């Protein structure tokens, strides 16, 4: 009898959820935008637990809007999203997990609109987002660069056209979140912002078609990026994870996007200098970075060998336990270069 009651309650709950989902879908798809949008935007004062539902309804409505409707209501929608994106800064600055969950639903909803925009109609939205990120709370930086990371991933080459606006703020983040600087008083927030910045840059470099990284922008980013090899913000474990999962992919893609011998030489030499750092962890990270450069540049790395080999030889002669794997490293480098390079390496064994 108890089992029957429990089964009945479960069935009723399931039916209720199904009906509520159907009702939300009906509201999102049947109401005209002129009625739906003013009503929903007023509902943004709902408690935190309701914001995910609110965003799912808005997302479904935007997905079925015609381009004419979207253009007509774009200003109203932009105002709504600028308010919604402020959730972290205004309502949840100290709970990173909760902020991430709610913020994620807002970003996904916003991206539904963004993916329907042309370059011409996306431009004013992006510049408003840039202005919004610079005003008021520093918490907005976390939200903005998380949004930029997602937009770069979805928009690809289109986003690169607007990425020039991000060079200075991203360079500032790289400098200010170094182990000797500070952006937030909260260590976790500094680590998160740095990670978001590196991820965003990696995607910009990935989708760059030789129109973004000119000499000026390369100069602005090169040294701050390389300096991250010695930035142990967050402790050893966080540092190692950041280097392998975020910094190496970012700097590796940066080297590909440079597509210039002189800039490759500058980048390679700055990394080589880090192999002489006093901290063994930094030296090892620098060695991993050299491997990444060789892997990314392939035969183009041959021209960098004359200055690289002495540094590698110096590392292999060191006593640090981190470099017990140096022979394996040498083998990996050999495998991605041509026969002439292999011959050169064999002479220094």
TrEMBL record:
<dbReference type="GO" id="GO:0030686">
    <property type="term" value="C:90S preribosome"/>
</dbReference>
<dbReference type="InterPro" id="IPR040191">
    <property type="entry name" value="UTP10"/>
</dbReference>
<dbReference type="InterPro" id="IPR016024">
    <property type="entry name" value="ARM-type_fold"/>
</dbReference>
<dbReference type="GO" id="GO:0045943">
    <property type="term" value="P:positive regulation of transcription by RNA polymerase I"/>
</dbReference>
<keyword id="KW-0698">rRNA processing</keyword>
<keyword id="KW-0687">Ribonucleoprotein</keyword>
<comment type="function">
    <text>Involved in nucleolar processing of pre-18S ribosomal RNA.</text>
</comment>
<feature type="domain" description="BP28 C-terminal">
    <location>
        <begin position="67"/>
        <end position="212"/>
    </location>
</feature>
<dbReference type="Pfam" id="PF08146">
    <property type="entry name" value="BP28CT"/>
</dbReference>
<dbReference type="GO" id="GO:0032040">
    <property type="term" value="C:small-subunit processome"/>
</dbReference>
<dbReference type="InterPro" id="IPR012954">
    <property type="entry name" value="BP28_C_dom"/>
</dbReference>
<comment type="similarity">
    <text>Belongs to the HEATR1/UTP10 family.</text>
</comment>
<dbReference type="GO" id="GO:0030515">
    <property type="term" value="F:snoRNA binding"/>
</dbReference>
<keyword id="KW-0539">Nucleus</keyword>
<keyword id="KW-0690">Ribosome biogenesis</keyword>
<dbReference type="GO" id="GO:0034455">
    <property type="term" value="C:t-UTP complex"/>
</dbReference>
<dbReference type="GO" id="GO:0000462">
    <property type="term" value="P:maturation of SSU-rRNA from tricistronic rRNA transcript (SSU-rRNA, 5.8S rRNA, LSU-rRNA)"/>
</dbReference>
<protein>
    <recommendedName>
        <fullName>HEAT repeat-containing protein 1</fullName>
    </recommendedName>
</protein>
């Amino acid at each position: 009898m108890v089992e029957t009651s429990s089964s009945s309650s479960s069935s009723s709950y399931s039916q209720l959820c199904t009906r509520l989902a159907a009702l939300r879908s009906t509201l999102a798809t049947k109401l005209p935008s002129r009625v739906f949008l003013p009503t929903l935007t007023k509902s943004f004062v709902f408690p935190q637990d309701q914001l995910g539902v609110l965003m799912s309804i808005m997302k479904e409505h935007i997905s079925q809007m015609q381009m004419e409707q979207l253009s007509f209501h774009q200003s109203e929608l932009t105002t709504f999203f600028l308010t919604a994106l402020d959730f972290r800064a205004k309502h949840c600055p100290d709970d990173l997990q909760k902020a991430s969950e709610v913020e994620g639903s807002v970003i996904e909803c916003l991206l539904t609109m963004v993916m329907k925009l042309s370059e011409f109609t996306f431009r004013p939205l992006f510049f408003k987002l840039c202005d919004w990120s610079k005003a008021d709370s520093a918490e907005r930086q976390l939200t903005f660069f998380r949004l930029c990371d997602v937009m770069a991933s979805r928009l690809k080459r289109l986003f690169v056209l607007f990425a020039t606006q991000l060079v200075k703020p991203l360079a500032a983040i790289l400098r200010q979140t170094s182990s000797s600087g500070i952006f937030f008083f909260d260590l976790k927030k500094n680590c998160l912002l740095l990670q978001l910045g590196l991820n965003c840059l990696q995607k910009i470099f990935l989708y760059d078609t030789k129109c973004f990284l000119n000499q000026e922008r390369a100069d602005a980013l090169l040294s701050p990026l390389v300096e991250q090899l010695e930035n142990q913000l967050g402790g050893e474990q966080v540092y190692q994870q950041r280097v392998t999962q975020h910094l190496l992919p970012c700097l590796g893609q940066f080297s590909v996007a440079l597509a210039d011998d002189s800039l490759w030489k500058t980048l390679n030499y700055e990394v080589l200098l880090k192999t002489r750092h006093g901290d063994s962890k930094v030296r090892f990270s620098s060695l991993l970075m050299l491997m990444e450069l060789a892997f990314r540049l392939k035969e183009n790395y041959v021209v960098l060998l004359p200055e690289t080999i002495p540094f590698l030889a110096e590392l292999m002669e060191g006593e640090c336990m981190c470099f017990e794997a140096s022979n394996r490293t040498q083998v990996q480098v050999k495998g991605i270069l041509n026969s002439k390079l292999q011959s050169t390496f064999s002479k220094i064994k």
